[in-house]
Specification:
Radius of gyration of chain B: 17 Å
Order of helices and strands of chain A: HHHHHHHHH
Order of helices and strands of chain B: EHHHEEEEHEHEHEHHHHEE
Number of helices of chain B: 10
CATH class of the largest domain in chain A: Mainly Alpha
Oligomer: heterodimer
Strand content of chain B: 15-25%
Helix content of chain B: 25-40%
CATH superfamily of chain B: LigB-like
CATH topology of chain B: Protocatechuate 4,5-dioxygenase, Chain B
Strand content of chain A: under 5%
Helix content of chain A: 40-55%
Shape of chain A: flat
Largest sheet of chain A: none
Distance between the termini of chain B: 13 Å
Strand order of the largest sheet of chain B: 6-3-7-2-8-1-10-9
Radius of gyration of chain A: 16 Å
CATH class of chain B: Alpha Beta
Number of domains of chain B: 1
CATH architecture of the largest domain in chain A: Orthogonal Bundle
Amino acid sequence: MSESHPQPYDDIPGTIVFDAERSRQGYWLNQFCMSLMKDENRQEFRADEPKYLDKWPMNEAQRQAILKRDWNGMLREGGNIYFTAKIAATDALSFQHIAALMSGTTQPEYAAMMLAGGRSVEGNRSKTEKK
Amino acid sequence: MARITAGVGSSHVPAIGAALDLGKTAEPYWKRVFDGFEFSKKWIAEEKPDVVILVFNDHATAFSLELIPTFAIGAAAEFKPADEGWGPRPVPVVKGHPELASHIIQSVILDEFDLTIVNKMDVDHGLTVPMSLMFGQPEAWPCPVIPLAVNVVQYPPPTGNRCYNLGKAIRKAVESFDKDLKVMIFGTGGMSHQLQGPRAGLINSEFDNAFLDGLVQDPESLAKIPHLDYMREAGSEGIELVMWLIMRGALDDEVEQLHRFYTVPASNTAVGHIILKNKAA
């Protein structure tokens, strides 16, 4: 997905690989997420989200993605799923809930898809294969 | 002399830990998962390993982006269950084996595997869920554990081949330790899953079962699977399977499969489990 350094894995549909370039891009976004491991920080974040975000040198797109809970947007802005999942935990959302949102469906539909064997790899290996 | 007698592969889905801790194991959804480990719990209770080397990955718990070690081995006397944001799992503190860990460190670094040495580390579900699946819910874990954390959070993780060869170096190290210890090695994570983006929920049972077959019969070929293939076929998080190759590398070329289990899903993930025994052991 990287603009400046194309990679073979950019061809995998619906997937953002968290590589060194994304890690650099999303460093503060992810470190903000890491701060939510502490309850006192979760409370402070909940009390005034924009103010809490001021503590972290993020760009506007990163801030907006967090404030709008745009889960795919956070990934595009360099977020890593293990880190952004900490925002979901702060919101008391299950992981399946945000997985459903990221894949454009609802939690019950997503859960039903998983019970039926998950998302098939057929048609999902490559952007050229994708219908 | 110490020796490695068997290897265990197991998924480490956090929801499995939550189901155990919240007493949901009898619910049909979870019973299906836990039933696959019934044999394993009895087997390991009889086998009584003296030490387990547990290969796992940290999930942005002990390691943030400040420090991302590719291979980190725990040499501490104990490792506390981590607070992953909703309080630590109610499981016993994990006791280490500093003496064997130090010996492994000394041996494998001179064997050109440059491990990071960790003397303080909280361990997350990546380590404690496989412990619960294998040992149940005891007051204290029945044996010490040497944690070996592998970076699979920031791409690229170490290659499958590197992992496989590290397993071989660990075996050599264990076999040169001058105490009579029965050691087992766990490889954890996987199987196919993707947690992120529009392709979240990807499962590839065909890939997973071929991987389990290959673990028994042809690990050399598995060790050649490129990262791109894991991500394409088994999901972006399916790449965790490289950790199973450390376990496999530490075993004999020829092994006996004692048990195998596969089910879909646990939450977002395909659950795989295998027990491999060294034929000579």
